[in-house]
Amino acid sequence: MPQSSSFLVRTEDVPSYSPANHSLTSNQRLIGPETVGAKHMELVLGTLHKGGGALPHAHPEIEQACYLLEGTAQFTVGNETHQMVPGDTCFFPAGEMHLFTVTSDTPVKLLVFYSPPYGEKPENVIRESRGPSNGPT
To answer: What is the pTM of this model?
Structure first.
């Protein structure tokens, strides 16, 4: 089976990591500067287990979208809260506080798009001071 290249990324070739300020969450950075040299976007495959999550937060200059592949979830951005099922996509504007919560007993799998790339850099996030939630950044 061919390995990943500068244009093809195979999920099994990408190491997983636990994102900062999260619990029970595993991410794989599929598209980004370090995998294919992308300069203006990033694509992450996230797996979140019930009970995991992060503090509410915002990315000051980064837009984010999440496409739900498996499981069910709830997200809040601004004053709006919505339920998600597989096939739904949510959007978090740059600078808006947001929260993502797993609502299914089974793990949630989702694709997370960032533009420009987030890269797990602490300077690219603002955190709120309330308790943990159940979801990704």
So the answer is: 0.88
